[in-house]
What does this fold into?
Amino acid sequence: MCEVGEDYRAPAGQPPPRPGREQKCVKCKEGLPVVVIRAGDAFCRDCFKAFYVHKFRAVLGKNRLIFPGEKVLLAWSGGPSSSSMLWQVLEGLSRDSAKRLRFVPGVVYADEGAACGQSPEDRAKTVAEAKLVLQSVGFPWHIVALEEVFSLPPSVLRCSAREPVGTEGAYKAAVDSFLQQQHALGEEQQSLPCPPRPPIRAGPPTAGQTEALSTLFSSVETLTAKEELLRTLRTHLILHVARTHGYSKVMMGDSCTRLAIKLMTSLALGRGAFLAWDTGFSDERHGDVVVVRPMREHTLKEVAFYNRLFAVPSVFTPAVDTKAPEKASIHRLMEAFILRLQAQFPSTVSTVYRTSEKLVKAPRDGCAAGTPGPRCLLCMCVLDVDTADSATAFGAQTSSQLPQTQPPVAQAEAPTVSCCCTGMGGARHCCRTEEDPRARVIEQLCYGCRVNMKDLPSLDPLPPYILAEAQLRSQRAEAEQIQEYLLEDREDEDARPGES
Amino acid sequence: MAAPLSVEVEFGAVVNPGKRAVRSLLFDGVKKHQVTLPGQEEPWDIRNLLVWIKKNLLKERPELFIQGDSVRPGILVLINDADWELLGELDYQLQDQDSILFISTLHGG
It folds into this structure.
């Protein structure tokens, strides 16, 4: 044993023996391998880079969703995966014209410090670091604070009319016309795919909004619900930025590892019906803005190595769960579960991930293709809830939950309630407005979001746009119901004239 | 008897153009440590190094970094910028002036 140690220290002419490093790169058979990926394949630095870059471009090329000249918003959290995505786009745009990515990027960075209880000084420091990276990237950028959810309009929660889905032919035509345009513009313009524009940043959040946001997050009873709430609010904010600045695609940096964890977490959270949207390459739930996940074939290990070997900058930001123990939330538990399995069985992540690839987005049974049913107020998925089907466990849960959440008013004023049951439109409307706003919000949520909202003792601290949209929707639903009654009455009259 | 070694131990994966120190919460905000491992009977390997780190560098919650006698799943180890899987993982014998980097791929880590 001792001799081995001495050997290493001996200033011998030849490099010391390195166990395992005699093997060569599996691709070029020459280079010294630096990273092991895909269960045992050793890659050298150059081959790893080629492999990594190719995979990013292949995912975009295969799906043909991003049209040339289209405005694409890159959602950058500062973390390794989204930073890597940023750099891949940057590199893709600077390539020679045949291989160049042809969309017009912008970056959005959401400062979530208030939700994690960061001090104003720390937040300023993090934002300054983020700004530094954004300046070096040079794309137009938007820094938004999570507090801005308090000034969002309720229209964020509406699914805008879907643009016609691009067919193969449409994509080719778009590429051709783009190339012609570029040709006409001349060479000097081509070298500048996106002229630098002034950065867009709203003023810093007001102290009142920061206060409101931290009140909201501290009122949430579990870390699981906190993480879900943060994810929901962040999505709405990014969606709003995309819409107000005319971006039609949003790129998220979810890696393969992260998506495998997300798939299992979503299952545990009761979001099984939406797995295909939550984890697929593209997510069209918002209609006019489509979310795409171009990093979905890169594992976190690949991302970490690439960022290290090629000096991709990222910004460290504490998350709501930083330093949290392993069992603090379903998200953390699932992460530990998957990563531990992965350590013993190196195909775990890819197996789970491949499952997510096979999921098909099918409309629910009973929903006609053209008319999607009502959507969840928070996650904006088509509701998976069937209130009529009270025989299922879920039906039991909802029917047991609703009376509970209704205030004692409903019982005290029993006569009013019974008047609703007679089916008179006007009476229904009058007692509906007295109904608990909580019940009104809950009934507009999907199963997963309902379960989640159980950990929010009061919905009052929620940003106003959510409550306003909930009210708007239930009023609209009532108006429709009234309309139905009116129509029925007329039909009745027509069918049996004189009887009424 | 192995002589004392000087190795660089680094935590976190963040390379920043501004060369700003990046806070790694577990290790009291210090990212890079130049450490001197005392001479001992057995040669220094990664397994021993982890024990030494746990005793000397970890400020709190060792379970977030170490599990059993190895690192927690989700933490990558790079030895002189190469994957430790190529070098024998826990059994790699440290040499003077080696640099060992730990990268966490864990959420919020």
In short: Chain A touches chain B through 58 residues (CB under 8 Å). Confidence is low (pLDDT under 50) at residues 1-19, 187-196, 403-433 of chain A. The radius of gyration of chain A is 27 Å. The CA atoms of residues 491 and 497 of chain A lie 10 Å apart.
